[in-house]
Amino acid sequence: MVTTKIIAPAPGAYAYPLLIKSLLLSGARYSPDQEIVYADKLRYSYRTLNQRIQQLANALTQAGVKAGDTVALLDWDSHRYLECFFAVPMLGAVLHTVNIRLSDEQILYTMNHAEDDLVLVHDDFLPLMERIHDQLTTVKGYLQLSDADAPATTLPVLGEYEDLLAQAEPHFEFPDFDEHSVATLFYTTGTTGNPKGVYFSHRQLVLHTLNAVGTLGVYQGAPLLRSDDVYMPITLMFHVHAWGVPYVATLMGIKQVYPGRYEPNLLVRLFREEKVSFSHCVPTILQMILGCDEATRTDFNGWKMLLGGSALTQGLASQATARGIRVHSGYGMSETCPLLCVTHLRDVELEQPAQAQVAARIKTGVAVPMVDLKIIDANGNEAPQDGEALGEIVVRAPWLTQGYLKDPDQGAQLWEQGWMHTGDIASIDALGVIEIKDRIKDVIKTGGEWVSSLELENLLSEHPAVTSVAVVGIPDSQWGERPMALVVCAAGECITADMLVAHLHQYVERGHINKWAIPKQIRVVADIPKTSVGKINKRLIRELELSQQALDIG
Prior knowledge:
By secondary structure, the protein is of the alpha/beta class. The protein has a domain at 442-553: ANL, C-terminal domain (GMP Synthetase, Chain A, domain 3, 2-Layer Sandwich), CATH 3.30.300. Helix content is 30%, strand content 24%. Strands 12-13-14-15-16-20-19-18-17 form a nine-stranded mixed sheet, with helices on both faces. Strand 8 (182-188) and strand 9 (196-201) form a beta hairpin. Helix 2 crosses helix 3 (79-90), helix 2 packs across helix 6 (161-167) and helix 10 (264-274) packs across helix 11. The longest helix is centred in the N-terminal third of the chain and has 17 residues, at 46-62. Belongs to the ATP-dependent AMP-binding enzyme family. Residues 29-405 form the AMP-dependent synthetase/ligase domain.
């Protein structure tokens, strides 16, 4: 243990805790008249936002919420979600952002596991809550969230959100408490078992926010979010706090646009009408936006887009760039809050034409400040920074979750030897640029050699008729595993497996891939299975393929 010098503070010195309430100080101070917009339904100023957060705190207190309680939220992306991001944890309670895309059984499990006390539920999710209400073991009541007249329900509702706020006092004195107090909780699904509870403290969220303000704003190579930008999330707010950006935007006092339920044509209209300049989403959402009707009559120039959650392919990035969208890749996990890496272009790359920049923009990026990241081999040794050697990404940062709720064994596995293990295989070059090659569970081992499913997806995506693609490994009696590809064809195009095999052979001839890496099966399909947060669901693809093989054998 290192012995350091500590000087006692002066009598009366204030030990400033890092609490979420401090993030509200600057927005209304610098931009009191700036707007918060909810789709085409509502808009108000930052002055009103701060007042509504205080009214919500009073309404929640009147409903019986106290420090240490857990408040569940089921809503579309809205101004209410933003208000709950602040009011609930600022009371000392825990905000459980419920994954509305899970099955009834999984939602029931997460709410009982979280021991939710009060539930805020949008009208669209009343039928869901009515189905599982009798099996919820800790819930004491509900607040109803309505965009129009509130429908009747059999749930024990304490009142409607807007009505309760209208009746509440516009001032609330938020207390100080330990900055290590849990602020938020959500559940992430894995390949097996029940969803795992991921939680973050006030201190972690404040540090993540401050870091993101700098990372997204100050670097010329990644100027994504600055004071004159208009922000619209297209990453569901139940998922890692919409990547933490609503906290960033509120601290900065910039215009925020919340789209409600995601519908591609609405998203494009909001982009146009509200002059949105920065969004973030998973690649599948970007593909939906580019393919919708409104996109055909929209100039996308000026829209900066941060892509994460799954690999951004060369084909999709090129398509977006051609339409005027400036794409950047970001990297993180549910467990990392999530920011770990962001594309950072250097001057020589920024001087190139937009399409020539695509190869650099789809790489995983550079670790952001305060992230200690390394790549280790199977023996735990750090891989050289040569852009070739592969290993698992392990990280340390001040905002990483410290475990899983009520699951110490899984938490210990996550934090083996004091580093968070991501499960992602990557290389790192001499400039610190990271390039993820695959998930450990998705790397394909065929004939004793490793094949990257992400590399094959990237190459297939470059065919002009391909809009999306997924590659997985399937069992093979001769080679152990062989790649299989699912491909979605662009509207009005016609493509066959033989055409795609011929397309891949050009990369064999150039030495990019070996001939045995070409998928044994390529299927042209109408859609590719997705997870609850819009990522390609490779686990389900493998399961469906194995089931089909079993039927064929039978």
